[in-house]
Every structure is written in structure tokens, then in C-alpha cells.
Amino acid sequence: MVDWPDGNLDAAVRFDEDPYDVIIVGAGVVGCALAYKLSQYRLRVLLLDKNYDVGEATSKGNSAIVHTGFDAAPGTLESQLVTQASRQWPELAEKLKIPFEKCGAMVLAITDEQNKQLDTIHAKAVSNGVDDVRLLSAAQTRELEPSVPQDVLGGLLIPRESIADPFTTSIAYAEVALANGIDILFGAEIVEIEDADKTIKKLVTARNDRIATRIIVNVAGLGSRRLADLYGGDEFDINPRRGQFLIFDKYSRSAIKRILLPIPTAQTKGVLVIPTIFGNLIAGPTAEDFSLDDEEVTDTTLEMLQSLLSGASRLFPGLVDQPVIGTFSGVRCNCSQGSYWIRSNDGHQGIVTVTGIRSTGFTSSPTLAEYLIKELHEKCGLNLEKNPNAVDSRPESNWPGWWQRPFANGELVKQNPDLGKIICYCENISRGEIIQHLDSPLKPRTLDAIKRRTRAQMGRCQGFDCQIKVAEIISEHCGIPLSKITKRGPESEIVPAPTAAGNEGKG
Ligand SMILES: Cc1cc2nc3c(=O)[nH]c(=O)nc-3n(C[C@H](O)[C@H](O)[C@H](O)COP(=O)(O)OP(=O)(O)OC[C@H]3O[C@@H](n4cnc5c(N)ncnc54)[C@H](O)[C@@H]3O)c2cc1C
Fold first, then answer.
1. CA dihedral defined by 323, 427, 172, 432, rounded to 10 degrees?
2. 150 has pLDDT over 50
3. Which domains are delineated in the chain?
4. Is 149 helix (H, G, I), strand (E, B) or coil?
5. Percent of the chain, pLDDT > 70?
6. Phi first, then psi: what are they for 433, rounded to 5°?
7. For labelling alongside 104, which of 214, 278, 462, 492 has CA 20 to 30 A away?
8. 489 lines ligand 1 (CB under 6 A)
9. What pLDDT does residue 267 have?
10. The model scores a pTM over 0.90
């Protein structure tokens, strides 16, 4: 069992008992989407992760663009899944209560050489089925986005490029899966697989728990190579590719309406300026290659952030005057053998490896999950019988508070006065919203899990003012000593453990 404060999600998990039909290893956006889609069938499914929340790895550190697939390599599985998903997203977001905005994007040509490439990018978009793109003259480009450089030579408008909330996406998928009876286990790192060649296989966790299953789906992202080694999966290499970002204050958001992109090079899509669904601007990402065991892979570095700022200001020169409130990095699962590297019955019957979901997995998650279910059915013999009682949406009350602004609704505050008690003044997040999330189905207990759900600690002060108040609310509401409140799970405690002298809770 997992030694985790109030982590009673694992109460339902069957250790050493009847096998699951499917165990999904990795609760990133891809694993959560797969759990959501599998929960529509009569199946026993377990979604597990070594971390203590969903979407805690690559899925929390991206540009959060719902791509149309206009620039994908035509004819690839990636292009097919991304373009299909892009059309599904507006309905998916509405069903799952994921904040989503069709803001559009613009590729900018600054040099003559770049201007010549716009036609090629336009043709590629059309061949990917994104036929609503439009070439723009210099004057049209400046008219639509007055903050772009005065010497811009032309642009390409992609009206359906969109932005969405990446955190709510994994959470929403997992919450619906849970409501449909799927089990979820956190703090479960898979370190061994027994009987991989048999019909019933056993996954062994770092805590020596054994969980039996007929099918294993490896969607462990950067961990997929190590996991594949445990069952002797096919050869592939992961070369983590870091992307750093700058986050600008909300004042900056009104300066641009659309995502601004440079003309891509053979190596990279380049640095973008991106409005976020939360009302900020971000600039990024960088593209820096690392080895799989490099521990600095998630750091941000002054040198790269400076070069990022200079690259981004070629698209929006005024960016250099905008206040930066934070930085972050995400690490792409870059597979040398190619993106969307998927092997069914990899090494053994009933094991599926999914890796190289490098730059578009947030967008493609719903269609990639459907693709994987088809593979599981056709190649691994998974029986698919629809569950007539399954739900596929979340109720209206699940729109995030930062999107709904409950503190400004007198009626709601009258019913629940805690919704009027502001804890995070940067983002206007109340004590009531934090408590609602603590009581939500996935039982978030870490500061980062609450941050991703509420936005408390994500504003201008980046938690300087409210972090300890949030920790106190978690401690009080869940009956967990303050010394056990962590940023992202065990070994990230924020105050020292009590001593014999009794310093409980003093940081
Ligand atoms: C800088 C950057 C920008 C991006 N921008 C966009 C964008 O704008 N739009 C878009 O669509 N996509 C974008 N992406 C890509 C997108 O973020 C990824 O494709 C997606 O998040 C991959 O999700 P995943 O579930 O495959 O992996 P992950 O989120 O990494 O999940 C894998 C999970 O497996 C778990 N795990 C690993 N090993 C084990 C083990 N042994 N036992 C148990 N659990 C294990 C990990 O803890 C992790 O939670 C971007 C990515 C980056 C890095």
C-alpha cells in the first residue's frame, strides 16, 4: 500500500487478486485519455503512475496549443491523429469542462528568404486538410496584429489554432474514468514485470506490490524505454528534448490576439509567442537535447532564457519591455526512431509500447486513445463491450473556478462564504475553491496539484504570498500534519518534520 496522506484512491486497487484487463502505466495526458476512452467499455482497468497526481511530467510543461496539424509531415500517423483531434476539441472541451479558446495563429515572414517559404507552408497545410489557412500581405499582417515588427513581409493565418488548459485536461479525463469505475494508483513506480510471456502478467512496484493484468500499455513517456527493458521490448532510443519558457504578466496579454510563430527551420519550429488560456503570454520553447539520465534536464537557465527573449522579440518587439513573472521547462519525449512510435504485442503478446509522443500529444490525446483502443482490440484481442451506464462528460459545476470567478457571484458566496475568502490575491482564488478541489474525486493533496487545479500560487507572486496559506488549508481540511504537506509528493516537504523539542508545523 502507498504511504501517502489520505491517499485512499488505492483502497479499490486489487493487489495480488483477480487480474485487470488492462493496466495503463503512465498517467500523463495520453494515459488519462486512454483511461477515459476505455472507461466507456465493460472492462477492469487500472491507471497508475509513479507520481502523486495525473499529468505531473511532460504533460504539465508544454505550450498548451491545440494544433490544427497544419505543419505536420503529411501522411504520417501524427498528422492524421492531430488533424482529426483538432476538429474534435471544441466539443471535447465543452463536454469535459476544459477552458478552450480558438484564438488562431499567424506565421510571420521577416526576411525575403522566409517570405518565399510561406507558399510552401500554405501548400503543406492544405495537403494536411487544413484548408482554411490564408496567405497575408505585409499590410494585412500588421492590421490583424499591430504589435508585430514593422518590417514584416507577410504572414500565414491559421484561424483554427487554439489554446486550452493543459492541467484540467488530464484531470478531467481521469475524473470521468474514475466515475466509470476505473481504478487509479499514484506513487506506484513499476520496477519489474513478472511473467511477461504469460497470459496473466504481474507488474511489480518499487514498494514490492504485485498487480496482475492481461494487457499492459506502456505510455510512460520519458520512462518508456526503461519500462520496455523490463519486458524486452523492441529497440528504440529516447533523447529528451528540453523546452524552456518565459511567463509574462497578464498586462502583456492584450498586446497580441493570436499565437505568433516564426518560419520553422529543418531542426526546430522555433520560439513562439503564445497567449495562454489563463490570460498571460508565454514565449518558448527552446529545443535542447539531453541524455536520458541527465538530472538537470528540467532546469531553466539564464543563458537560454536570454536567447529565448531575443528570438521571441523578432515576432513581437515590445516583448522586451513586458514584465516576466516566471519561467518553466518541459521535456519532450523525442524518439530517434520517429514520433508516434507504437508497437502492439511488443516482445510478448498483450504488451503495447507507445513512445515518441513528442510535440503534439496534448492535442492528439483523444484520437490517439481511440487509435490505441483499436490496436488493443484488433491485435491484442481486447473484448470491447460498451458500458451503457458510462458517462463521458463532467457536470457544469466542474468548470474551474478561475474560469467561472465564483467570488464575484453573490448568490454562490451566500451559499458558501468560503468562496468569498480570497487566499491567492494575484489570481483571485478563494479558500472555498481550494476546499472544493481537495474534496474532488482524485483527492489532490500536494501544493502543485492544488496549483494546477485552482491557479493559487500561479500568479504574479508565484506563491510567495499564498503558498503557506494553501498548505495550511490542506493540512486543516484533510487532517494532515503540516510537516507532511509536500510540493509534489514524498521528499518535497515544505516544512521540517517535528523534532523531540516539538517544532511541528514551524517552517
Ligand atoms: C516544451 C514542450 C512544448 C509542447 N507543446 C505542445 C503543444 O503546444 N501542443 C501539444 O499538443 N503538445 C505539446 N507538447 C507535447 C505534449 O506535452 C506531450 O506530447 C504529452 O504531454 C505527452 O504525454 P504523455 O502522457 O505521453 O507523457 P507524460 O506526460 O510524460 O506521462 C508519462 C507518465 O509516465 C509516468 N512514468 C514513467 N515511468 C514510469 C514507471 N516506471 N512507473 C510508473 N509511472 C511511470 C511518469 O511519471 C509520467 O507521469 C509539448 C511538449 C513540450 C515538452
1. 160
2. yes
3. 1-98+164-235+339-398 (3.50.50.60), 99-163+239-332 (3.30.9.10), 400-484 (1.10.10.1100)
4. coil
5. 96
6. -65, -40
7. 462
8. no
9. 66
10. yes
